[in-house]
Amino acid sequence: MIRWFAALAAVLAAGCASMGMPDVAPGQTEAEVRKEMGNPAMELKKPGGDTFLYYTYYPGGRICNVAVIGTDGKLVRMEQRLTAENIYGIKKGMKDQAVRELLGPPRVISRLPNQNLIVWEYPWIKSSSEKRILWVHYTPDDGVVFKVVEAHDEVAEPTSD
Questions:
Q1: DSSP-assigned letters across all residues of 19-81
Q2: Distances, alpha carbon 147 to alpha carbons 44, 89, 124, in Å
């Protein structure tokens, strides 16, 4: 019976890691983080020397973890970027690069040719379980946020039949 529980615990731990709950701790080297988490979806070198490694779990995932690697090459902290604070912090007039740095790479980038807009899509989870979706609309010429739309994700969680 104890072996069965141990096996179940191992399977659940592996499942949690694949769903974006990283098994890394501050002080580990960048190489150890990459070995555990794989290749990041995006890397960003900050002016102060820190490196941000963005890990998304698309298409089905709704989180973006950022491993902050210090100038000493060690993990400083892990941050979840698709949070209500960050999502609701996206405002008209922001540049696309600032949004990408804050939220990470989008799940989908599409074009609305009739409106001359580019749309980035971010699925996320509000509170502990409500599936939400964010669409950030940009003007293609200057990459400036034109409109932000955030709503319940009806595709993932229909509210009516």
A1: TT-----TT-BHHHHHHHH-S-SEEEE-TTS-EEEEEE-TTT---EEEEEE-TTSBEEEEEE-
A2: 25, 13, 18
pLDDT of residue 21: 59
Among residues 112, 115, 86, 88, the alpha carbon closest in space to that of 101 is found at 86
pTM: 0.82
pLDDT tens-digit profile of 78-123? 999 999 999 999 999 999 999 999 999 999 999 999 999 999 999 9
Exposed/middle/buried for residue 59 (C-beta within 10 Å: 0-12, 13-18, 19+): exposed
CB atoms within 10 A of CB 160: 4
Q: Beta strands 64-69 and 144-152: pairing type?
A: unpaired
Query: Domains (ranges, CATH) in the chain?
Result: 24-80 (3.30.1450.10), 84-152 (3.30.1450.10)
Nearest CA-CA partner of 71 in 89, 93, 46, 108: 46
